[in-house]
Specification:
The complex is a heterodimer. By secondary structure, chain A is an alpha/beta fold. Chain A contains 21 helices and 34 strands. Chain A starts with a helix and ends with a helix. Chain B has one domain: OB fold (Dihydrolipoamide Acetyltransferase, E2P) (Beta Barrel), CATH 2.40.50. In chain B, strands 8-1-2-13-12-9 form a 6-stranded mixed sheet. The two termini of chain B are 21 Å apart. The chains are: A alpha/beta, B mainly beta.
């Protein structure tokens, strides 16, 4: 109520000051209105929220009734009943969930005698939990049953004509499991009155999609099945990305959005393949995804454009059910929370739209329905077939590419003097400041600048790397700030050019000199990579010693306490790129640790087994040939001796998903390559534990 | 509809809004009209039926706009400063009819309204509920329900 009052007051104020023509005052009031509306929105939405327990509780009965009917012994575990969702979602989630639960009970969990025969506890467990994750609610349904029987799925899918033998042969394990979501699919050999009546998981998917939810299945044969449903908190207001197609705005709900890709020039030629008949695919990290042109689906143009002939394209990769595909859009406008409004009855035949929304300027923007676009473009039937054919033909190629993709580095491109391009690994940059040359003070033989009441020491590239063109006399300068030995320091540069992701090989020899790690080719320019640590440590040798002293002191301290024999800790480094290997090795050897190196996961595992009692910590890359970091960690963890060994991933492949996967299989920590201080800090932490 | 007619019959006079669609002079009973607005910023929906001009934002509601020129097969209407959108209600939603010009609102004597002929300028008579005879011209009174009927098309 207070809020409503406040809103009225703010409105009055806005009315008043809009007449006074005092722009500042209008801004200020608009801001207040914004604030109050946001609070009010939250409050109103909160009244619509209900806890999911309402839905969960009815499963107690469903499970009890069904298990006695099926002659199974099943325990139900409910978690996260207090998680709240919008009323409309709560109302419609019950049916699909019940369907999944019945499926799990009927096909998933085995009868007690089968379970005992498989060496499992007699009682099966079905766990249903709800939790928050990144602005969504996830409901997971986990059973410890037999898992999805791949053979039976294959046979059934062939029999019912959902896929061809050829398609089956090319499918990954996960894709086979996902076949259960196809319409008309049922693996139950005998149709029971519980499930297997041909109304399959596809109905569940359709219902969930209506709610803006996505489903993911993960099944290990003999161990069980996990289904994860990701739902938006509310349906009325959804975060979405505004894009422009032919000068019109369209909204794509964030929940459907996987990533955004921009391709230009050669890259575009490389990654986009025209399959003829107006369909194209994009090659993305070893995957081939169908591509649709927004201009075409929205019937703005009738002709199909040849995408590979454009100068550059923006692609929104979206996920519709189990299919991922790319939509070619003209440009990205903004990401914002939009209010979904239904379209009139005359437009219900336009399946490409999920509704409309009103933008800040009062105009209407249509909301793309990724499921609708998928079916209106026939992405599953026609393109999928072509697409499979195609992926078959390019298998060899893909493998080649994978080698290149390894160790993608994000680099900040900068300029020092004229015409010389430098790069700084983005992972170690704390922030970037713009300054005037006159702000720099030269004191005690060093340069510094006053920053928020502190002194920020500044270094010039040419102080150490003598052979490069000096920065010269420039008024506007850039400082790249990063942390070193718990201090913030800045490197003075003349200009920021770009941030790029590169997979080019790093040449660590040709241009190596103090302060320069090596060179890499970016946009056809030879670019020198700045070694910030070496630069600072060479100029300020005391700082390096400080840190070294500290770590050694700690180790000695530990030795004194008699916890462990005082000896130099040994670190195993698994890393396939020589360049990064040298870097990481020098980081840790610098502060006094010993290292053992291995070039891939398999060698690392061997080295680990050979030196089982010597190695105190493992630093591993994720993307490596022969055996990747995940596999290596999994296998190492499987060995009892290494169950407690600190294992840290040092990688350029970051992202929540990879990180979660890593943590799940037993990695202690996920670090970004070349962030020296972080690597050392974490090593010290684990070694002193 | 029948009920409504009865309602008008009792009043003997009925208020009509007179407007033009191409060369055709039409009318709608004012009680069926929610409001008449100027044309502003129509967002086109390209893959909809041809007669759908697009959608607009009417005070927070998304309203579908039907181009009456296309609906009556006269060809798309050119929008200018005289163009108007007549907002009518269809069950629980609003629909806008794009017309050329609204020029009058008058009280019509029901005795001057005849049932429609089976076709008016080549259009199905079903689109109209009656013909109102004015001094110099004939005005076709639109049958909103039929125009908004989705099933038929």
């Amino acid at each position: 109520m207070t809020l409503a009052g406040e809103l009225v007051l703010a409105r009055n104020q806005l009315n008043q000051c809009s007449e006074s023509e005092n722009l500042d005052l209008v801004h200020e009031t608009a801001q207040r209105v914004d604030l109050i509306t946001a609070e009010l929105q939250e409050a109103v939405m909160a009244t619509r929220m209900q806890s999911i327990g309402i839905v969960f509780h009815k499963f107690n009965r469903v499970v009890r009734d069904l298990s006695s009917k099926l002659g199974k012994d099943i325990a139900l575990v409910l978690e996260g009943e207090e998680v709240e969702l919008d009323k409309t979602i709560i109302e419609s989630i019950g049916d699909p969930l019940t369907h999944i639960v019945r499926n799990s009970l009927d096909h998933g969990i085995e009868t007690p005698d089968k379970r005992i025969a498989a060496g499992k506890p007699e009682q099966g467990t079905l766990k249903i939990s709800a939790y928050h994750e990144a602005g969504h609610v996830v409901i997971s349904i986990i059973d410890d049953g037999a898992g999805v029987n791949r053979e039976r799925v294959r046979a059934k899918a062939l029999e019912s004509g959902i896929v061809t033998q050829e398609q089956l042969d090319n499918m990954k394990d996960k894709e086979i499991v996902e076949l259960i979501f196809k319409p008309g699919f049922s693996t139950a050999e005998v149709v029971t009155d519980v499930s297997g009546r041909g109304v399959g998981m596809d109905v569940v998917i359709t219902n969930l999609t209506k709610l803006g939810g996505v489903i993911d299945v993960d099944s290990v044969e003999g161990e069980g099945t996990t289904l994860k449903i990701k739902l938006p908190l509310t349906l009325a207001i959804i975060p979405s990305l505004l894009v422009s197609v032919a000068d019109r705005s369209f909204a794509i709900p964030q929940v459907n959005l996987v990533e955004l890709v921009r391709l230009t020039g050669d890259e575009l030629q490389d990654k986009i393949e025209n399959l003829g008949g107006g369909s194209s695919v994009i090659r993305l990290r070893g995957k081939l995804l169908p591509l649709v042109d927004a201009q075409e689906i929205l019937k703005i143009v009738n002709k199909t454009r040849d995408l590979s002939e454009l100068a550059s394209i923006n692609i929104a990769i979206v996920k519709a059910g189990e299919t991922e595909y790319g939509i070619v859009i003209d440009s990205l406008l903004d990401s914002s929370e939009i209010v979904v409004k239904p379209l009139g009855k005359h437009l219900k035949r336009c399946i490409n739209y999920a509704g409309a929304t009103i933008l800040g300027d009062g105009t209407v923007a249509l909301i793309l329905d990724v499921m609708g676009v998928k079916s209106s473009m026939n992405l599953t039937s026609i393109n999928q077939a072509k697409f499979d054919e195609y992926s078959d033909a390019t298998v060899v190629d893909e493998d080649d590419e994978r080698v290149d993709i390894r160790d993608k580095q994000s680099l900040l491109l900068v300029e020092n003097g004229d015409k010389e391009q430098f790069a700084i690994p983005l992972g170690i940059v704390a922030r970037i400041e713009k300054i005037k040359a006159s702000q720099i003070e030269h004191i005690g033989g060093r340069n510094a600048i006053q920053y928020r009441g502190d002194t920020l020491p500044l270094f010039y590239l040419e102080e150490l790397a003598k052979d490069i063109t000096p920065i010269g006399d420039k008024e506007n300068l850039i400082i790249v700030v990063f942390k070193i030995s718990n201090r913030e320091v800045g490197i003075v540069l003349s200009e920021i050019l770009d941030v790029v992701e590169t997979d080019s090989k790093v040449d660590a020899f040709t241009y190596k000199q103090p302060g320069i790690m090596g060179s890499v080719i970016v946009d056809e320019h030879i670019t020198l990579i700045i070694d910030m640590y070496e630069l600072v440590y060479t100029l300020m040798p005391k700082w390096r010693n400080e840190q070294k002293d500290e770590s050694i002191k700690e180790i000695i301290h530990q030795g004194e306490q008699g916890k462990e024999e005082a000896r130099t800790p040994v670190i195993l480094i698994a890393e396939d790129s020589k360049f990064f290997m040298t870097q990481i090795k020098s980081f840790v050897e610098d502060i006094g640790y010993e290292t053992i190196t291995a070039e891939d996961g398999a060698l690392a595992l061997q080295a680990l087994k050979d030196n089982a009692d010597k190695i105190d910590l493992v630093l591993t890359d994720i993307e490596m040939p022969n055996m990747d970091g995940f596999e290596f960690t999994k296998l190492a963890r499987a060995d009892e001796r290494f169950a407690k060994l600190p294992m840290i991933a040092v990688t350029s492949v970051s992202g929540e998903e990879a990180e979660k996967k890593g943590k799940d299989i037993g990695l202690d920590e996920y670090l970004v390559k070349l962030d020296r201080d972080q690597i050392i800090e974490r090593c010290n932490y684990y070694l002193n534990k | 509809m029948i009920n409504k007619n009865k309602h008008f019959d009792e009043h003997i006079e009925v208020e009509l809004a007179i407007f033009h669609i191409g060369k055709l002079t039409c009318a709608l009973k004012s009680l069926e009209i929610q409001e008449i607005i100027r044309v502003d910023n129509i967002t086109p929906v390209y893959e909809a039926e041809e007669c759908i001009k697009g959608v607009i934002n009417l005070r927070g509601n998304i309203v579908t706009i039907i181009d009456m020129g296309v609906k009556f097969s006269f060809g798309a209407l050119k929008t200018d400063k005289n163009s108007r959108i007549i907002i009518v209600r269809m069950k629980d939603e609003m629909v806008g009819l794009l017309v050329d010009m609204v020029d009058d609102i008058l009280l019509a004597d029901v005795t001057n309204i005849d049932p429609p002929s089976s076709n008016v300028k080549g259009l199905s008579g079903a689109f109209f509920t009656g013909i109102y005879k004015m001094e110099h011209s004939l005005v076709s009174i639109l049958n909103v329900d039929e125009i908004l009927n989705i099933e038929k098309k």
